[in-house]
Every structure is written in structure tokens, then in C-alpha cells.
Amino acid sequence: MSTLTRRTFLGAAALGTLGLLGAQKLTASPAGANGSAITVGYVPIACSSPLLLADATGAFARRGLDIRLKRYAGWAELWTAFLTGQLHVTHMLAPMAVTPTSRPTTLAYTLNTNGQALTIASDLHSQVNGLEDLRGRVIGIPFEYSIHALLLRDALASRGIDPIADLELRLLRPADMVAQLEVGGIDGFVGPEPFNQRALVSGAGRVLNMTKEWWDRHPCCSVSMGTDWMTAHPGEATAITEALAEASDFLNAPGNHAAAAATLSQEKYLNQQAALIEPVFEGAYRNWAGEDVIDPERIHFGDATDPKATAWMSEQITRWGLA
């Protein structure tokens, strides 16, 4: 079992490595200058839907932007690319954007609120009734600097459970979470969609908690920008956020869910079945008690960035020794 000292050291060491990389000379050309292409990184999860849909529907192109999406399997690779100047604009977990690093970062647009869940292996249904029963378990998290990890740590601590000494929080790429659950490598995971939905459909897992039960309308993902790039390219930065707002409005309209899911299911976007994506937008899932739930606020796109939420994330990053 990890100790606080070891976990704090690992978190600091990882951030220090990224900081050293970020301190290197930025060799990438200034994306967006003179109408050049802007490469935007993303991890293929439902939270990135406004970014992907803005590309698919031409919302970027209509504003004169040449956006080139680049997919990353996990957050560490994406963050390294951003800190070393390979990316100036990127999909980013909101806590990443407020973590002090070698490259000043601006959280330019909150992509989504809610939309995450704590999924536990179905074969543990008779043994787990709540967070108190996670002692001694292994729970997957997508990144230390994620709202998932921060919310889970806070929820556990509020119930007298030490999230470091009493269980293991194991880093996993989102795409690996269901497979690890199926083979018994983990007892559950707190993560993004459509992977909770995939675990539900396969029978491997059941939703113990939606993270909105711990904090309704909590932020999750963002599009963030290097502050240096944003200052140098205010027109492009504004056009990007306007396109994201247009796509968010489309996604929030119930009549568009099926079409959006079909578009985002393409290999170049989420590369997941539309049948897994649409229920996320509709808010349909089966809870731990086996009840079918429809919650229109399961995920919401494009809420204004809340300064109080930003402050809370910063406090939690400090609280858990991640800064």
C-alpha cells in the first residue's frame, strides 16, 4: 500500500520531470500565425465532445481556423507535449490547467461539468454498499491531476477513509479501465465516459456513484492554452472558444443526441460505438441498486468557468501534495 510520503514524492517527481521538459526551448512554430494550422491535442473521452464536434460540424472552419486534432492515449503524454511547446492549445483536465508548472496556462473554456462516475466490479455487489467498503480495494484513476482523483480523495476523506493508506488509487489510461476491471486487475475505477457505460453494457461493472452526487455541476475537462500563445493570438483564441460554445449548445439540445453520438463514434474522434455514447448524452444508466435512471444532467457542456471551482481544485492539489 502506498504511503503519503511515497505518493507525494512520486507526484512531485512526475511534475518535476514535466517541469524540466517544459523548461527546454520551445521549438514548435507559433501555431495560428499567418493563418497556419493549429494543432489541438485531445484524449478520446466524452468530455472532449465539444472540441471534436466543432471540428466535425465545421464550426472551426467557419471562423477561419485550420484546426488539426491530435489524439493522445493518456494525460501524461499530452501534458508533456503541451509543456514542451508541441501543443499550444489542448484538451486538458481542469486541475491540470490550474497546477503550477513551468509554462503558464490559461483555462480558456470549460468543456463539461458532471459526466463522470465511480464504477465498481459487478461481482463485488454483495460486498460493497458505499465508499466505506472500498478499504483495501484497488481503484483506477485517470490521472493524479484529475477532478476524478480529487473528488474521490475528498469524498473518502470526508468519511474517515485515508485515500492513500486505506486503499490503492492506480493510474490507468481511460481506455484501459474496463479491460482491467474485466480481468480483475482493479476493483473499480472513477473515470470518464463512455467507459462507465461500456462497463455497464458488458456487465463487468455497475455505477456506485455518479460524481455529481459528491458535487453537482463540478468541472471536469477544459480547453486550455499556453498563456504566451493566447496573448500573441487573441483573435484565434476567441474564435476557438466561440466554436466550442456553438458545439456545446448543439450537444445540450436533446434532439441532437443521436446525431452527435453517430458523428463522435467515428474512428478519428472517440472511436466508440454510438450505442455507448448516446445514453451518456441522454443521461440513461443503471445504478448500483439495479434501477434504470434517466438524469438529463448526467453530463452538461459549456458551463462558464467557476472561479470558486478553480480555487477548490487549487486547494485540493495543495492538500494532497501534488504541487
What name is given to the CATH topology of the largest domain? D-Maltodextrin-Binding Protein, domain 2
Return the CATH architecture of the largest domain: 3-Layer(aba) Sandwich
Please provide the count of β strands.
Answer: 14
Walk across the major sheet and give the strand order. 2-1-3-11-4
- Category from helices, strands and their pairing: alpha/beta
The end-to-end span amounts to: 22 Å
Rg value: 19 Å
Mean pLDDT, rounded to whole units?
91
* Number of domain modules: 2
Q: Hey, roughly how much beta strand do the residues contain?
A: 15-25%
Keywords: Cell inner membrane, Cell membrane, Membrane, Transport
Family: Belongs to the CmpA/NrtA family.
Protein name: ABC-type nitrate/sulfonate/bicarbonate transport system, periplasmic component
InterPro entries: NrtA/CpmA_ABC-bd_dom, TAT_signal
Describe this structure in words.
The protein has 323 residues and is of the alpha/beta class. It has two domains: 38-114 and 217-318, Periplasmic binding protein-like II (D-Maltodextrin-Binding Protein, domain 2), CATH 3.40.190; 116-213, 3-Layer(aba) Sandwich (D-Maltodextrin-Binding Protein, domain 2), CATH 3.40.190.10. 37% of the residues lie in helices and 20% in strands. It has twelve helices and 14 strands. It has helices at residues 4-22, 49-56, 75-83, 94-98, 147-157, 177-182, 195-202, 227-232, 234-252, 257-264, 274-282, 307-319, and strands at 38-42, 67-71, 89-93, 105-110, 112-114, 116-121, 138-141, 168-171, 188-192, 205-210, 221-226, 284-286, 292-294, 299-301. A five-stranded mixed β-sheet has the order 2-1-3-11-4, with helices on both faces. Strands 8-7-9-6-10 form a five-stranded mixed β-sheet, sandwiched between helices. Strands 5-14 form a two-stranded antiparallel ribbon. Helix 7 packs across helix 11 and helix 10 (257-264) runs antiparallel to helix 11 (274-282).
